[in-house]
Amino acid sequence: MKNGKGLFGLFLVTVFVMGSASSAPAAWGTKELDTELASATFAREVQRGGYDIVTTRELKAWIDQKKAMLIVDTMPFEASYKKQHVPGAVQMEFPIPEMTALDEKTQTALIKLLGPDKDRLIVFYCGFVKCTRSHNGAMWAKKLGYRNVYRHPGGIKAWDEAEYPVEKVR
Question: Is 8 exposed, middle or buried (0-12, 13-18, 19+ CB in 10 A)?
Fold first, then answer.
């Protein structure tokens, strides 16, 4: 993984991001099992995909710094992207189940969207942490040889909760 991060470190960060536990043992319940499962699932997706992650605040800072990047919204156009998306994002829909193969038409469209610069900073996002559309986009970008690929796991839900500005298609 980039920056020397291991799977265990990613797991710990994911647990922290996805929920925190109460310090009172009497208040503990079974929800921690759900958080653990979601965290492990996310960490394994990142490991399989070989991409890095960027938080909502980090992505907003990159945008504010006018960092050169391509932001890809992987949600359906009519149901999501048209209504709201991260400013400057382009849209290419990906399915939710992990894609074990990429058909030629989709591969050609993805390469055209990402461009010839394999070192270009590319950020994929979808709806929220458990949505795997962004995982598919980021994973296939890496498989196609792009080297600077990130997944924004909180997606448009985290972006909206942070009350950051959005764009709409008119």
Answer: exposed
Question: Judging by DSSP bridges, how do beta strands 121-125 and 70-73 pair with one another?
Answer: parallel
Which amino acid is residue 102, in one-letter code? L
d(CA 53, CA 47): 11
Instruction: Pinpoint the alpha helices (H) of 50-148.
Output: 56-64, 104-114, 133-143
Task: Count up the domains in the chain and report the number.
Answer: 2
Say if residue 166 is in the same domain as residue 99: yes
Domain boundaries, position 27: 1-49
Quick one: 63 and 114 in the same domain? Answer: yes
Q: For residue range 17-46, list pLDDT tens digits in order.
A: 445 444 455 566 678 898 899 999 999 999
